[in-house]
Design goal:
By secondary structure, the protein is an alpha/beta fold. Helix 10 packs parallel to helix 12. The radius of gyration is 24 Å and the shape is globular. The two termini are 28 Å apart. The structure holds 1-deoxynojirimycin. The site of 1-deoxynojirimycin has 9 residues, from loops.
């Protein structure tokens, strides 16, 4: 494991919406540099930034035209290098987003592959032999474009119809136009990925979040060949860039870590019951109707299979799902964060979640955002024009700001010592101070029963054991606990005189709406 990950707390930046420095209404690298001290002071020491490369932006930059060139709207490659340097000057790290599975329709590689005359790119995307060929269902291929090329053939898309799939071969070859996963074409695909990675690592980035990492080889049961491909990439990185970090958008930590990733996300779309935590009948709602047991069951199985090899990472949210604030209020979010920042692996905080930024309903889709658009609005910094995001006229902003006069801002949150922002700071500081709470501190679940509150687990490293007691429900709840908890080192609870934490004869009573961390 790369050493700095042990104590890493990530902050995800959607570059369009974080900080505009030149008044054009869209965020940029220099804007991010201006806000690095803020991120560091929040207790986040690592950044994942969404794609920032030349793109027609049909999918917010996940449709890349030039993998070696920063999108001019964010700045130049030199500006991006300056961002890397400024990050490192603060003892922080930064991961870029590597869109490994596809390009944009405007990519010169794709354009070359559309030509009738054979060239270097002819077999580097997935083309059938004839434009009308019926393809049937093929796992890993979302849809096909037909009639867009002088070449005769239909071409496979990885996600939207603007994202032609690069050809990494097929696990099961059933048609003459399919190449095998160990064909020279597939091998060239991997070498190209390695070249792109080397380019940015040489410039100073610390690694990559890999988009749709499981999608590369098509018709690949059990992801056998996709795993092999990533294992080869990892061997290359270990040899040439041993400090480079890889985190996958895979959604199955067991497979992803076997494939060579250091970490994988628990995803909204995966089978991990992630959504039950903060979003769908969320456990962290004070209604107290949630169920943590399914999450724990799935998490525990991943944890046992991956511990000491890699991390399962839990995000507060990301650019693909509704913000946590859509289902939880600020008080509930404090308890959700007490969980997030005390779990193994690396916590990922989505920009603005530390202030309880809202999901904006019914926004017109921007850059392929659709219902994700409301989670991608400009960061609200202060009470100056455009909430301090940009000096552009309001109508030129990348997306509109939350118009609610009570919208949360960093300025208002930092002033209020009881705010969500301060709870996040307290929790990140606690995590940095206690090895037991960091990436590879052991976790043992003590109470996580179906349809039940509270939720208890212990974290342990070296000679320290800490007990995390979470009772998000609006009622006093009890559970068995064999030993009396020790000194309280963190407490977040309703200030209404309701019951204290109380232990007697092997039973623990927990106050309503509380998160308490004790020595144990
Ligand atoms: C996952 C990314 O997170 C999402 O935003 C994007 O639309 C798809 N992959 C396609 O690249």
């Amino acid at each position: 494991m790369v050493k700095w990950l042990e104590n890493a707390v990530f902050y995800e930046i959607y570059p369009q919406s974080f900080q505009d420095s030149n008044g054009d209404g869209i965020g940029d690298f220099k804007g991010i540099i201006r806000r690095l001290d803020y991120i560091r002071d929040l207790g986040c020491n690592a950044i994942w930034m969404n794609p920032c490369f030349v793109s027609p932006f049909y999918d917010a930059g996940y449709d890349v035209t030039d993998f070696y060139q920063a999108a001019p709207r964010y700045g130049t490659n030199e500006d991006l290098k300056e961002l890397f340097d400024e990050v490192h000057r603060r003892d922080m790290h930064i991961l870029l987003d590597l869109v490994a599975g596809h390009t944009s329709l405007e990519s010169p590689w794709f354009k070359a592959s559309c030509l009738a005359e054979e060239n270097d790119w002819t077999s580097r995307f997935i083309w059938t032999d004839s434009v009308m060929e019926e393809t049937g269902e093929i796992s890993g291929i979302r849809n096909w474009l037909r009639g867009i090329s002088e070449r005769d053939g239909a071409v496979a898309m990885n996600c939207f119809s603007t994202q032609p799939a690069l050809n990494y071969g097929f696990g099961e070859v059933t048609k003459p136009w399919q190449t095998a996963a160990d064909s020279p074409e597939a091998e060239q695909g991997r070498l190209l990925l390695q070249d792109i990675m080397s380019f940015w690592l040489d410039m100073g980035c610390d690694g990559f979040r890999v988009d749709m990492a499981a999608s590369l080889v098509k018709a690949d049961p059990g992801h056998k060949w996709t795993k092999r491909l990533w294992q080869q990439v990892r061997a290359f990185l270990d040899e040439h860039y041993p400090q480079a970090v890889l985190i996958s958008e895979w959604g199955d930590p067991k497979e992803a870590i076997e494939a060579g990733f250091h970490m994988d996300f628990l995803l909204h779309s995966g089978p991990t019951c992630y959504m039950k935590l903060f979003r769908e009948n969320p456990y962290f709602s004070r209604k107290g109707t949630g169920d943590i047991s399914q999450f724990v069951q799935t998490y525990e199985s991943y944890y046992q299979l991956t511990k000491q090899k890699g991390y399962c990472c839990i995000p507060s949210g990301n650019h693909d799902m509704k913000r946590m604030r859509a289902t939880l209020d600020e008080e509930e979010m404090k308890l959700a964060f007490a969980f997030l920042f005390t779990m193994p692996g690396c916590p990922f905080l989505y920009y603005g979640d530390e202030t309880g930024m809202r999901y904006l309903e019914d926004l017109t889709s921007k850059e392929g955002g659709y219902d994700r658009t409301g989670s991608r609005t400009p960061m609200q910094w202060d009470h100056s024009v455009n909430a301090g995001f940009s000096t552009a006229p309001a109508e030129k902003l990348y997306l509109p700001l939350d118009t609610d006069p009570a919208r949360p801002t960093v300025a208002s949150m930092t002033k209020d010592s009881h705010s969500l922002y301060h709870t996040v700071r307290e929790l990140t500081a606690l995590r940095h101070a206690h090895k037991a709470l960091q990436g590879s501190g052991e976790i043992r679940f003590l109470y996580a029963e179906p349809d039940s509150y509270p939720f208890l687990y212990e974290r342990q490293a070296e000679d320290e054991t800490l007990l995390v007691i979470l009772n998000p429900s609006d009622r006093t709840c009890e559970c068995p606990l064999s030993r009396r908890p020790g000194e309280i080192i963190f407490s977040c609870r309703r200030d209404d005189g309701s019951d204290e934490l109380f232990w007697q004869n092997g039973r623990l009573q927990t106050p309503p709406c509380s998160a308490i961390i004790c020595r144990y």
